[in-house]
Amino acid sequence: MKNGIIKLGDFGIAKVLNKTVDQAQTVVGTPYYLSPEIITNEPYNFKSDVWSLGVLLYEMCCLKPPFNGANIHMLAMQIVNGTVPPLPGVFSAGI
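Above: the chain's sequence. Below: its structure in C-alpha cell form.
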C-alpha cells in the first residue's frame, strides 16, 4: 500500500467470525495450508489463520511447503503430526 503496509489475503473461501472467541466448523481451504484442527474436523478460530501464515513463511524461506504427501491423505497425516523439517542453515536458530 502507499503507506508501506503489506497486506496478504486469500479470498477464495472466507468465513467471518464476529469475535476472536468464535469458532467455525466448515472444512475449506488450500490443502497445504490447512491447520490440524480443520483436518481433524474440530472447531477452529483465527489461530488457524496464524498456522496458515506460518506455513506460508516457511515456504517463502525454503522454497517448498513444510508438508508434502503423495496424496491428500498423506498430506493430512503430516500436518496433523506436525513434524517440520528445519529451516536452511542460512537462517538463525530459534530462541
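Residues 13 and 29 are 7 Å apart (CA to CA).
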